[in-house]
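$ ./design --mode recover --in tokens.txt
reading tokens...
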């Protein structure tokens, strides 16, 4: 095999591996267009769609910033967002929006979010209620949820 043929073979194999990796990543993605399933919850992936729904339902917003490669995000999703009590409270009382900080950098930058996981709660009128920077265990998150619901006069 000539050096030229070897180079062409390497390039073709590299391109094939790249295409296969992209296909696998897309197939394994948890996103389904406008929604993403995290833990036991479905989140909007668009600020616009989520805020419109929040206005229509007159509910506050739970805005969750994450990335697919963030260890603490994955842990939060597996533990806290899979907890039955958390699922019940969030589904009943909030409109859920998830922002991928790599894919939606402008949203994160506009809200001064520089790390993941990061959570912001807004009332039904779009005014910020509270922020939670970083990972938080389930029991502490439940306390924060109750505080936010008190502030937004949901109880």
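writing sequence...
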């Amino acid at each position: 095999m000539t050096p030229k043929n070897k180079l062409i073979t390497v390039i073709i194999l590299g391109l094939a591996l790249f295409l296969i990796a992209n296909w696998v990543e897309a197939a394994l993605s948890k996103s389904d267009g406008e929604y993403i399933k995290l833990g036991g919850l479905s989140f909007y992936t668009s600020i616009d769609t989520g805020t419109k729904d929040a206005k229509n339902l007159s509910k506050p917003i739970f805005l969750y910033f994450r990335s697919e490669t963030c260890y603490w995000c994955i842990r939060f999703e597996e533990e806290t967002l899979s907890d039955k009590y958390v699922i019940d409270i969030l589904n009943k009382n909030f409109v859920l929006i998830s922002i991928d900080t790599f894919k939606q950098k402008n949203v994160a930058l506009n809200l001064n979010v520089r790390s993941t996981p990061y959570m912001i709660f807004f009332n039904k009128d779009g005014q910020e209620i509270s922020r939670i920077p970083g990972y938080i265990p389930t029991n502490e998150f439940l306390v924060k949820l109750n505080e936010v619901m008190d502030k937004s006069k949901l109880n």
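exit 0
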